[in-house]
Structures are given as C-alpha cells and as structure tokens.
Amino acid sequence: MWRYFEMLPVKDVKNIVTLGEGMTPLRRLSHLASYLNLSSLIMKDESVNPTGSFKARGISAAVSKAKEFGIDRCIIPTAGSAGGAMAAYCAKAGIQCIVVMPEHTPDVFKMQCRHYGAELILVKGLINECAKKVEELKKQKDHFDMSTMKEPYRVEGKKTIGYEIAEQLDWQLPDVIICPVGGGTGLVGIWKAFKEMIELGWIKEFLPRMIAVQAANCAPLLASYKDSLNWKQNFSPQPSLAYGLAVPYPFGIDLMRKVIDESNGEVIAITENEISDGVKEIEQEEKMAISPEGATTWKAVSHLLVKNLISPNDKIVLLNTGSDHKSLEDLDGT
Known about the structure:
Blueprint (H helix, E strand, L loop, with lengths): L25 E3 L1 H6 L4 E6 L9 H15 L3 E5 L3 H13 L2 E7 L4 H9 L3 E5 L3 H12 L5 E2 L7 H6 L1 H9 L7 E5 L4 H16 L8 E7 L4 H7 L26 H10 L3 E5 L1 H15 L5 H15 L8 E6 L7 H5 L2
Parallel strand pairs: 2-10, 3-4, 3-6, 4-5, 7-8, 7-10, 8-9
Antiparallel strand pairs: 1-2
C-alpha cells in the first residue's frame, strides 16, 4: 500500500513499518454472478494481507506514524483481527503492545497476539467492554490508545483500498461497493480515498453507492437509522460468527452515516445462518477461503436485488476483509 506514500501521513520513509500489506487482488465471482444473473460481480480479497486481514493496512499506517512520533508503547481493544495485526506491526517496530480482547474470541486470535510478544488481556463481553478496560489501563500505564477512530491514522491506511480499487479498474469506479462494517474504518476510508481522487483529478464526480453490511446479532448502524434518538436504549447486541462485526457502539457511527447518506447507500443486516451459508457458498462455488465478515457482502446481494436497491446490470464490488482460517473452528460446527 505504500506505493501511495505521498497520500499517506508518514513524512519520512525510514519510519514506514511494513510487512508487505496492500495491492490485494480483485477476483471475479463468475459462478455466483451467473447464479443471480449479474453482469459483473468482483471481490476485493483482503485475505492475503499480512496477519490475514485488512486490519494490516490501518495498523501499518498507525504504527508507522506512532514510530515517527517516538511513541514506544501502544494499547488496543479488539474483536480479534486488529489485535493480531497490532501485535505483529508493533513487534516489527520495537514498540511495546497491549491487546485487550473478548475472552470468547477463538484461541487462534489469542495465539497470534502472544506469538508476536504482545501482552494479552481478556475480558467478558464484546469490544465495548474491552474499550472500557483500555480506559482503565490507560490511567495506570502510559500507553497510546490505538482504538478505532480514536486515532486518525488507521483510516488513512484503510483508504488505500479505495485507491487500489480505482487503479485496478483503470480509474473506472464500480456502481456499488458492498462493505462489511464493524468499527467502520474501511467504509469511511474508502470514501475518503474517492473524495481525494476527485480533488486530484484522477476520477470523475460519479461515485459508487456504498452499502454497509452488519451482522443481525449486532447491527448498531441499522438500529440508528431506524431510531436515531433512542436506538441505544433498546439495543441488545450479541456475539456473531463475524467477530469483526460485533462492535455494538462504534465511535465513528456518525462518519459511517455520513458516507451512507452522501453515496445514496444502504445498510443491510445478515443473520448468523446466512453468514455460515455464505462462507460455504463462496468456498464451494469460487474456491475462495473467505472470512465470515466477507461472506456477509455476498449474502447482502440477494437482499439488495429483492429491494430493487441494486440492478443486475450494476458493476458490483464486494469487500472480503480477511481469511477464513481464524474462524474454521466455529464454522465447522455450523
């Protein structure tokens, strides 16, 4: 992703902390497209990033900037993948790292953090409880908080997905981009990239509709659209097979809503059964190892077609945020 160095916040190349993230492939889903009579269905496959997910992009940018600022201790609350990425990049940079993770997270996420030498702290509940623990620990330890949207540089790393989509499609953007959304840095970052490319004159004003997909078990963005004033009072978030989507009270929810509104987009929620079915369908039909989060984007397509929110002739890009290898134990029992 550092091919876009001039558009990223690090000032000196010597401070770049990279493990080879970015420039992930676009894969045409021809079998699935045929199944729904779609003219163009493409997946941006982030599973090949270091540590197995698109979290590598944001963490690479954030840790690089932390290094440039002289920060040597960081802490992060995570639903899973961001913690592993943080541990890996901090290890590369020589930065001390604390990861706070839900105790119900699969062991492979925990092992990845420990493998890279991070201090791992487990808490009961979802990532919001992890965030509370981080606030508590920050009063005792002098660690910089890398929480989603509470520091500005993870979005900068994630926006490179938008630059790559444009470049890989010869600067002709698709009609629709469907993104799994937890903390929202991917959705917000991609939209930021498009706005920057308009200013640069690299693309024209026409921009894709941005579709945010959440797990029905934990869909705060959808809940906020149904009742913007009181949604938190009646909201009962639950864990999901898509661990990265189990973010009940995202700090950047207003930024996510702004992207949806500006792009004339939509929010879709996918059930747990649909998520597990989606993983199997993509693996069987397209021979791709896909994360549960990524599978939600495929299952969202049918909902969008039924609601006439997309057309079979639209050029559609799905975002797969990671590999299935961290979720195999859970998926094997579904």
